[in-house]
Write a structure and sequence with these properties.
The chain is mainly β. It has one domain: OB fold (Dihydrolipoamide Acetyltransferase, E2P) (Beta Barrel). Helix content is 15%, strand content 41%. The protein is built from three helices and seven strands; from the N terminus they run αβββαβββαβ. The chain has helices spanning 4-7, 63-77, 142-148, and strands spanning 15-28, 36-45, 52-60, 82-97, 107-123, 126-130, 167-168. The longest helix is centred in the middle third of the chain and has 15 residues, at 63-77.
Length: 178
């Protein structure tokens, strides 16, 4: 006889936390599968005086994260600097071929992940959202970095859209935009 503990699946979670600029919010309608909300995060990496960017193309998971990303859609579309403190999981790579532009025909790698949690959102340097602290949860120190970080005049980097996805305008936001 098996108990309920014997039948439960066990997973190892690999989560990454960071701070980055939000870009390319879109509803993706794959040929096979259900539509989903996606966005790109240009995560800040390295020294604060010499920042580099690591791009993550994310599938937004969970109702709370989807709600917050949809609220940011108008600010991103208006080219405001939307900086978030985030947690992603299930990181994987995808190889794609540029279809247009000066790199047409070249292959590149895209980092893909699921956007799981948003701790803080700043729009043009102003904090517009901060998650409630979770009791007995892991401490998140990236929110302090985001609160101190003021976007420079440098625009957040945009990345080319990987092949194989059909981007569609996001549906109306669930709540008022920032």
């Amino acid at each position: 006889m098996t108990t309920s503990n014997d039948t439960k699946l066990k997973y190892y979670n690999l989560h990454t936390t960071g701070v980055g600029y939000l870009n390319r919010i879109r509803e993706v309608k794959p040929k096979n599968g259900d539509p989903f909300l996606a966005c790109e995060i240009a995560a800040l990496s390295g020294r604060k005086d010499k920042v580099s960017y690591v791009r993550f193309d994310t599938r937004v998971s969970g109702a709370e994260a989807q709600h917050l990303i949809r609220r940011c859609a108008d600010a991103v579309k208006a080219e405001k600097k939307v900086l978030i403190s985030f947690r992603i999981g299930d990181l994987w790579t995808d190889i794609f071929t540029y279809e247009k532009g000066k790199r047409a025909g070249e292959q590149a790698v895209s980092l893909k992940a699921r956007l799981l949690f948003i701790e803080l959102i700043k729009v043009d340097g102003v904090i517009v959202y901060r998650a409630d602290p979770k009791p007995n949860g892991p401490e998140q120190n990236d929110a302090e970095d985001v609160a101190e970080f003021t976007p420079s005049d440098e625009a957040a980097p945009e990345a080319p859209e990987p092949a194989g996805e059909t981007a569609v305008e996001p549906e109306p936001a669930l709540a008022d935009a920032f």
